Each structure stands twice: as structure tokens, then as C-alpha cells.
């Protein structure tokens, strides 16, 4: 008999496309206040989820939206407490989806991400993991 593992606070469902489309509207640092807006707060619990958690929903989004989400998750981690993603920041999974489409690396997006984060894993992920 096998048993699964349960992590307190781990989301039980994947983020909705509607929630991600709302988040894609936040692409500039000036839009990030001291706390997340109510329409995107639900994404906080998804910040440290693995690639499999994200794959299905990211595949449904167009590349422009994915690039906006890379900016959102980069800024969210930098501006809001408890939005730490580390080597599982969704920006990494977004960039991997863009790479699968042949649209990454993107020099402009990569430079922007690196200029707006202290997370050493962005945008490529953990090279050892």
C-alpha cells in the first residue's frame, strides 16, 4: 500500500486560466503595492509548485500572456511577503513553456527578469535539479 504526502497550505487544484489572465495585467513594478490585489492573491499558494502542477494551464495560454506572467511572478516574489518561489518560481515554468515553443531564450525578457529579481534561479531554474 502506498500513501501520498500532504503539504499544509498546498493548493489542491491548479490555477485557473481566468486567474492567470488577471495576473498578466500586472507587469510593471509600479502596479505592486504593499499587498497583492484580491484578484491575484489566490496565486500565492501556487508559488512553490512543481512544473507538472503548471504545465496543463500554461500550454493553453498564448505566448504574449506567458511573457506577461513571467514578469508578474518575478515582481510578485520581489514585492510581496510570502510569495517566495525560489527554484520553483512559476517564472521558470513559464520560460520552459516558451522554450518548448521555440520562443525562449528571449534576450529582452531574460535581461528584464534578471534586472528585477534577486532570485538566482530565474529565469532558467536550478541547473543541479
Furnish the topology, listing elements before pairings.
Elements: H1 17-23, H2 51-59, H3 63-79, H4 90-100, H5 107-115
Helix pairs in contact: 2-4, 3-4
Give a quick rundown of the structure.
The protein is mainly α and 129 residues long.
Describe this structure in words.
By secondary structure, the chain is mostly helical. It has a domain at 48-129. The chain contains five helices and no strands. The protein has helices at residues 17-23, 51-59, 63-79, 90-100, 107-115. The model has no long low-confidence stretch (mean pLDDT 92).
- What Rg do the Cα atoms give? 14 Å
N-to-C SSE string, H for helix and E for strand: HHHHH
Unreliable segments of 5+ consecutive residues: none
Q: Tell me the structural class.
A: mainly alpha
Query: What is the average per-residue confidence, as pLDDT, rounded to a whole number?
Result: 92
Biggest sheet statistics? none
Shape: globular
Strand share of the residues?
Answer: under 5%
E-strand count: 0
Number of separate helices = 5
Helix content: 40-55%
Query: Cα distance, first to last residue?
Result: 29 Å
Amino acid at each position: 500500500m502506498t500513501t501520498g504526502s500532504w503539504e499544509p497550505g498546498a493548493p489542491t487544484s491548479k490555477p485557473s486560466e481566468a486567474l492567470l489572465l488577471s495576473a498578466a495585467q500586472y507587469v510593471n513594478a509600479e502596479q505592486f503595492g504593499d499587498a497583492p490585489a484580491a484578484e491575484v492573491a489566490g496565486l500565492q499558494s501556487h508559488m512553490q509548485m512543481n512544473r507538472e502542477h503548471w504545465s496543463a494551464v500554461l500550454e493553453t495560454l498564448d505566448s504574449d500572456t506567458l511573457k506577461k506572467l513571467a514578469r508578474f511572478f518575478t515582481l510578485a516574489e520581489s514585492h510581496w511577503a510570502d510569495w517566495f518561489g525560489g527554484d520553483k518560481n512559476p517564472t521558470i515554468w513559464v520560460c520552459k513553456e516558451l522554450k518548448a515553443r521555440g520562443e525562449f531564450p528571449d534576450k529582452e525578457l531574460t535581461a528584464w527578469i534578471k534586472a528585477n529579481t534577486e532570485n538566482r534561479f530565474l529565469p532558467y531554474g536550478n541547473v543541479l535539479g
